[in-house]
Design a protein that fits this description.
Chains A, B: One of its GO terms (molecular function) is 3'-5' exonuclease activity. Chains A, B: Residues 248-364 form the DNA polymerase III beta sliding clamp C-terminal domain. Chains A, B: Residues 1-120 form the DNA polymerase III beta sliding clamp N-terminal domain. 2 copies of one chain form a homodimer. By secondary structure, the first copy, chain A, is α+β, with helices and mostly antiparallel strands. Chain A has helices spanning 7-17, 71-79, 132-142, 198-209, 262-274, 323-331; strands spanning 2-6, 32-38, 41-47, 51-58, 60-63, 65-70, 85-91, 96-101, 104-109, 126-131, 157-163, 166-172, 176-183, 191-197, 215-220, 224-228, 232-237, 256-261, 282-287, 292-299, 302-314, 317-322, 337-342, 349-352, 358-362. Chain A has 3 domains: 2-109, DNA Polymerase III, subunit A, domain 2 (DNA Polymerase III, Chain A, domain 2, Roll); 126-237, DNA Polymerase III, Chain A, domain 2 (Roll), CATH 3.10.150.10; 256-362, DNA Polymerase III, subunit A, domain 2 (DNA Polymerase III, Chain A, domain 2, Roll), CATH 3.10.150.10. Chain A has 6 helices and 25 strands. In chain A, helix 1 runs antiparallel to helix 2 and helix 3 packs across helix 4. The longest helix of chain A has 13 residues, at 262-274. The relative contact order of chain A is 0.11. Chains A and B meet through helix 2, strand 9, helix 5 and strand 21 of A and helix 2, strand 9, helix 5 and strand 21 of B. Strand 9 of chain A pairs antiparallel with strand 21 (302-314) of chain B.
Chain lengths: 367, 367
């Protein structure tokens, strides 16, 4: 293999696929990145067997071929190369590559590419297009509520469902739940319900934040999901299992409603959390029949009392939250005002936007 | 004590003095910051008994007084206050303070101020003024060579000396040495030689980077050094002991001289260090009687070969350096070109600027 590329293009591709590298894998080759040159295109690819990312780059190919190079070294070296034309030439007998720049060169040992796992082929499946900005917003507003416990895999993913042109994402770790619905009038088919790994979506979100693509093409097959951008493909396994029936946790017997300015609420909760106990992280919200609520907390260092103007209707009550969980839920909201619907001091609390397209549910804690 | 201040002024003062807070001190009060209000001035002060920093702020004082507040909480709370007028009122009986903003308030427990250590008074001593930019440059170019071994305290400081209007700073950890000399024609007296703690100077450098002061007033007494800025005073103990005679380590029998572009050199050493052995961190420099030198390194992952154009005269030789130490020395240099003077493959290497005002000495390592 032999090709010529600029530093910046190559660095972008490597940094993109790096997110799928598995540095601690039992298979050493998975700590590497595949480089495959053909037809004046370079494919740069990494996979940890669950998530695969590949990036397509236009380069000047002098000799086709492929090699796997250790991600740790190749990223650091390419990052520090001068901004000049760089020549890559592999030695297929030694499984090494020579990188030539100016009068200098680096030589890195790699692996034979034929041992590198293939990515699953893109078969026919349920395919739809979605605007990148809508998709990013949906991910941002739900991903915080995914769990991290690998023993309960269904909770580590986001549930995707399309019914009657409504695309719905749901995430829950059982302590909290976030749900967003977007109307997509161009989608005629239905997607019965799949669970996409949170790790995949969090890496995808980072990639989408650094691309210019306006649309993303999504294909769902029996076991995989494919996210196709102009120059980047992301392939992930789906999580198997039955997603819990979340409809019954959405509180219905609302006894108090609060409408509140989101930025005021966030700043007050942030301050109150500074003086919440380091173990329980509890903060207290006092809702009276009046035009403000009080958020308070105390620990050995002192206490904080925050008064925030609200629109309030319903029964007076006191409710305790884990301040970190409450902050996560508030920071995911994308509107100026937020509605809190309370069903009692130890019953689930509903946070929602005015149009109800976004809602999140938070379990209070006991005082 | 009762005063009114804006958030930003107070935050700046607290963040400035925070560098002298001793969070893990056996004396709990030293984890606190002193606030003292009098004459429409607020003094904010912290000390770890070796270094003291105080900041003077114009505030509206309603009632004079003083209190010590735990730095951990007070910094976080003030950082998150709204940008509004803030009222502070202490309760001297409870040793606590109430911070009022909008309709909210925080109450923090503190300590009685009379238990807080006094800073030493500014007695008569050797006093001189120096331009902040020159002083910062001198610190930046030497501080990297100070040691960290508390069992050999003289090596943890920078040696200051003024003789015949030449201000000289020297730092060495015995593996390397950095020395800078500035001509200060306005200083008529002489300073025989003191050792200023590296920690003090590193905090001072951060403070100088965030102030607008053009001059700094330095006073040296028997055991202390005072750095006086417009609104900030920094007081530090001096390190006792005899500074080593460093003159004899400056190499004299030079067998080869190299003139090299600093940025080229730094980039090549940076790349070569990526493939130096993670244990030894050695890189090799080959100097031939030619117009370039070669920097190379290798480890289990591969090898790097860097050719850099130079102006060379003298004997050919191969020399090995610890790449981190070489990088530290190069990054401290403040000129476009650097001169290397070699006295043999295992003898000290001299790095200097053209005017010889700055020099640093680096011990090679054995291959």
């Amino acid at each position: 293999m032999k090709f010529i590329s600029t530093k910046d293009n190559l660095l972008y591709a490597i940094q993109t696929v790096q997110k799928a590298v598995s540095p601690k894998s039992l298979l050493p080759i998975l700590s590497g990145i595949l480089f495959k040159a053909y037809d004046n295109t370079l494919i740069v690819r990494a996979t940890d067997l669950e998530l695969g990312i590949e990036c397509f780059l236009p380069v000047k190919v002098i000799e086709t071929g492929e090699i796997v190079l250790p991600s740790k070294y190749i990223i650091d070296i390419i990052r520090r190369l001068p901004d000049t034309v760089i020549e890559f030439e592999s030695n297929d007998y030694l499984n090494s590559i020579t990188i030539k720049y100016k009068n200098s060169q680096a030589n890195i040992h790699g692996f034979a590419a034929d041992e590198f796992p293939m990515l699953p082929p893109l078969n026919d499946g349920f395919t739809f297009l979605i605007s990148t900005s809508i998709f990013k917003k949906m991910l941002r507003q739900t991903i915080f509520a995914t769990g991290t416990d690998e023993n309960r895999p269904v909770f580590t993913g986001i549930h995707f469902q399309i019914l009657e042109q409504e695309f719905k994402m749901v995430a829950t770790d059982t302590h909290r739940l976030a749900m967003i619905t977007e109307h997509l009038p161009l989608i005629k088919q239905e997607l019965p319900g799949i669970i996409v790994p949170g790790k995949t979506l969090s890496e995808l979100l980072k990639i989408l934040n650094s691309t210019q693509d306006e649309e993303i093409k999504i294909t769902v097959t029996e076991n995989q999901i494919f996210f196709l951008l102009n120059e980047i493909n992301i392939i992930s396994r789906l999580i198997k299992g039955q997603y819990p029936n979340y409809h019954h946790v959405i509180p219905k017997d609302i006894i108090a409603k609060i409408k509140i300015k989101l930025s005021d609420f966030i700043q007050s909760v942030e301050r109150a959390s500074l003086l919440s106990s380091s173990i329980s992280q509890h903060i207290r919200i006092d809702c009276e029949n009046s035009d403000f609520i009080v958020i308070s907390s105390n620990n050995e260092a002192g206490h904080i009392y925050e008064e925030i103007p609200v629109f309030f209707e319903g029964e007076a009550l006191q409710i305790y939250f884990n301040s970190k969980y409450l902050m996560d839920a508030l920071k995911a909201v994308d509107s100026e005002e937020i509605y809190l619907e309370l069903s009692g001091p130890i019953n689930p609390c509903l946070l929602r936007t005015e149009d109800r397209n976004y809602l999140s549910i938070l379990l209070p804690v006991r005082p």
